[in-house]
Design brief:
Mean pLDDT: 90
Radius of gyration: 12 Å
Number of helices: 2
Largest sheet: 5 strands, antiparallel
Strand content: 35-45%
Oligomer: single chain
Helix content: 10-25%
Order of helices and strands: EHHEEEE
Strand order of the largest sheet: 1-2-3-4-5
Structural class: alpha+beta
Low-confidence stretches: none
Number of strands: 5
Distance between the termini: 19 Å
Length: 97
């Protein structure tokens, strides 16, 4: 669905999950203001824009729940994905802008 968030099966989103659990885990910890050393994705939502907003429900290694939004630009731009938002709790998916 263009414009709205849609829940995605974790087993179909391995690259999107990797953005949280590997690629941007330090940036997420910094935005969260905590010292988590790992993040586990529980749910993934996507929103198609000029690229993709990925919205995650995650749990850190301390057991705290977070909502994370990562914007992934279209491939032809050559730009890297970016952590846009980190909020405490599992919140409803929303546009981070």
């Amino acid at each position: 669905m263009v414009g709205g968030f849609q829940e995605r099966p974790l087993n179909e989103c391995a690259d999107a999950v990797k953005l949280v659990e590997v690629t941007h885990k330090d940036a997420i910890s910094a935005k969260a203001g905590n010292n988590a050393s790992s993040w586990k994705v529980e749910k993934v939502y996507s929103q198609v824009v000029a690229g993709t907003n990925w919205w995650y429900h995650v749990v850190d290694n301390n057991g705290n729940k977070w909502s994370v939004c990562i914007y992934e630009p279209l491939p032809h731009t050559g730009n890297a994905a970016e952590v846009k938002l980190v909020e405490n709790g599992h919140n409803e998916a929303k546009n981070p802008n």
